Amino acid sequence: MSTWSRPVILLLCGLLLMTVSIAVLNTLVPLWLTHDALATWQVGVVSSSYYTGNLLGTLLAGWLIKQYGFNRSYYLATGLFAVATLCMMVLAGFWSWTLLRFSAGVGCALVWVVVESALLCSGTVRNRGQLLAAYMIVYYLGTVAGQLLVSKLSTELLSVIPWVTATVICAILPLIFTQVAASRDPAEALPGGRILPMLRRRSSRLGINGCIISGIVLGSLYGLMPLYLSRQGMSDANVGYWMALLVSSGIVGKWPIGRLADRLGRMMVLRVQVFVVILGAIAMLTNAAMAPALFVLGLAGFTLYPVAMSWACETVAHHELVAMNQALLLSYTLGSLAGPSMTAMLMQSYSDRLLFVMIAAVALVYLVMLLRKADHHATPVAHA
To answer: I need a labelling partner for 294 at 20 to 30 A (CA). Which of 18, 77, 185, 382 fits?
Structure first.
């Protein structure tokens, strides 16, 4: 299968539509709950239920793909997300929305694992970096598009839910017109493997650790950077501008960094990326010019995950890619849950500047890991 085959393009089209819907709901659900006068802790529980669903979906995805294949698993995942979204129109209350957002989180994680695993199984050692870079570019383009739609269209629940649900249903359509094969080798037609052996594999440890670090960094930037900027006296419009710059820098860096990772090797590119993250965090701490500092931080920080993922996937056999992808997404999710909570406590207890201290500290720890010899394998070799 060539790099830009029909199944790959249609997968990315479906992902784009799904990501728009996810971004809109992730922004508006907390606002709707606040308008309904729910307590802050209740809003937090509903938000946490979504990420808890992400964890469960990640754990279930391998079994689902093995039983039903990529296409039917994708249909089930998007269908679950669409039903959970549509039911928000008819079910109200704290417990109902907690259950609905949990279900949406399961569907969302299933979509991520199915799409990422399908792309990994479609690629080889020579183009997996490009495929994952394209995946992340589409993901962030959908995120930006969702935010723009929130700012331009009505945010009333009864106005938003119908078109968001319709968008999710449209995300199903691209895969109706193609069949995504689990493997090019009939002996590996069904993906196998379990998550725990993947997490324990020494040769993949640096890639897994990279996904955890990426989750901590991106979770902190997504969740706490707006708070930091707002406390610097910026208006909501200016906060939106700087966040757009941060995310856009990640989009700009995805493709060239993916190409470099394919040509120069994941290890070298990862070392440079992590070093640049540290430099960007230090620049923010020293009150350097914010535009270049944020651009550099986003450029390196938002591209860590696909490079770390492709590095880890080079250490496993082709039929183990789905299980490895589950392990990596699980690692990222755990990092994105732990990072913002730890950083928020530090910011509340000491100073808002601890956001960048935390980012620099975890990046430094990962850089030290990368500079050590990687389990006696100077360069991991993929199963093409």
So the answer is: 18
